[in-house]
Amino acid sequence: MASANPEQPEEINIQQRKNPRGIWENFITGQHVSLERLRERMQMVKYLMKEIPPYPTPVEFWVSDVAHVTDQTGFRGIKESEQFRPPYSEFSWWYLKIKEEEIRAAETGYMETNFLKQALELKEQKPFLEKFTTSPLFQLEKSRYGNYRFTFPLTDLMKWYKEQNCGGEEPVLRMHETITYKQEIVYTVLIHSPEDNERFGEYPLLEASEWVRYQDGKIIWKAQAICETHCYQFVSGEAQGLYNHVFYVWDQVSLVFHLPKPKALKIPKERLREALEACELDEIIDLSGYKGPKNKEECYMEAKEEVMQLKRGLNKMEKEEKDEDQEDEDEAKLKNIDDLF
User: Fold this and answer.
1) Residues 210, 34: Cα–Cα separation, whole Å
2) Can you tell me the distance from the alpha carbon of 314 to that of 292, in angstroms, rounded to the nearest whole number?
3) How far apart are alpha carbons 169 and 155 in whole angstroms?
4) Are 266 and 250 in contact (CB under 8 A)?
5) pLDDT, tens digit, 9 for 90 and up, residues 99-147
6) Concatenated DSSP letters of 12-49
7) Other C-beta atoms within 10 Å of 276: how many?
8) For residue range 58-104, what is the model confidence (pLDDT) as tens digits?
9) Cα–Cα separations (whole angstroms), residue 134 to 63, 129, 281
10) pTM (2 decimals)?
């Protein structure tokens, strides 16, 4: 059982470091700090200081799927080993993958909470939240980190982690950090084995977070900045186009699974293949680290072909298994007929 939450300091201690990708980042340990408080303390982040036309905030998403994106080297390592193991650290990073129906549900919830009258007429209205969910998190066809994306239900990932790394006990979720970049705010959730409660006891349990919760196998995220680029304003329950777009910050949630060596997260081969898809690299921000001769389109097409081959292999294997089952069934029927005579 995890220990009680440590007292959260009222002041926020902003520190700086260079992450494994060589990028400088500001971070605040053990807190999920609101954009409002960050705005008070981080005047150096120019996008955060902008005056933004009204937009839906906060919007509560109930998210059931999480994803991990990697480059070709990482993909091939995962494929061969059938497991996720961080190569340079003891933490495996995953982000939320939000479905269209989850956006629609968040839209309904937002209207019911803030504009009850319009919410009653929402079924007759065209969806509006999709005009605001334009940050990189919602651009599912693209990624900044590589061309290979694995997506799993969080319930499955937690089940595997529980069985393989927690001795069958429930994993512990903690409020890990708030990390800030030029335009991006990341709220990280640390997930670890109960045996590491003493080591990670300085981080409050996730229940203390105002912006992220875990319930019924889902991450409940109160998103504060979903746009990045604002092309609309939200007035009296309606989206209205802006004459000029406005750049702002955007926030997201990352799940950080503790996997110290030699621990790993083993996934059945069939599930890995089912979960895999190719995605394009972001045209503007590329954090994949690729330095080879191929351009982004060539890398994407190569990834797409590799994924298709794996999928074909999975379909072939499933067909062979189905044929074998049918043969066994036919043999059993023939045996039953022979027994009658």
Assistant:
1) 8
2) 30
3) 14
4) no
5) 999 999 999 999 889 887 665 665 556 789 999 999 999 998 889 899 9
6) ---EEEE-TTS-EEEEEET----HHHHHHH-TT-GGGG
7) 20
8) 999 999 999 999 999 999 999 999 999 998 899 999 999 999 999 99
9) 17, 9, 16
10) 0.87
CA atoms within 13 A on the CB side of 64: 9
Let me know if 135 is exposed, middle or buried by CB neighbors in 10 A (0-12, 13-18, 19+): buried
pLDDT at 16 over 80: yes
Residues 6+ apart with CB under 8 A from 90: 258, 259, 260, 261
Task: Give counts: helices (H), strands (E), the chain.
Answer: 7, 18
Taking every pair of Cα atoms in the chain, the longest distance, rounded to a whole number of angstroms, is: 90
How far apart are alpha carbons 70 and 57 in whole angstroms? 31
Helix or strand run (H / E) with residue 265:
strand 265-266
> 160 near 271, Cβ under 8 Å?
no
Task: Give, as one character, the DSSP assignment of residue 205.
Answer: B
Q: Are 71 and 147 in contact (CB under 8 A)?
A: yes
| DSSP helix/strand/coil, 283 | coil
> Tokens 């023939």 map to which residue?
334
End-to-end CA distance of the chain: 64
- CA 72-75-79 angle, to 5 degrees, is 140
User: What percentage of the chain reaches a pLDDT higher than 70?
Assistant: 85
Q: Which two tokens stand for residue 268?
A: 């059945």
Contact 137, 58 (CB under 8 A): no
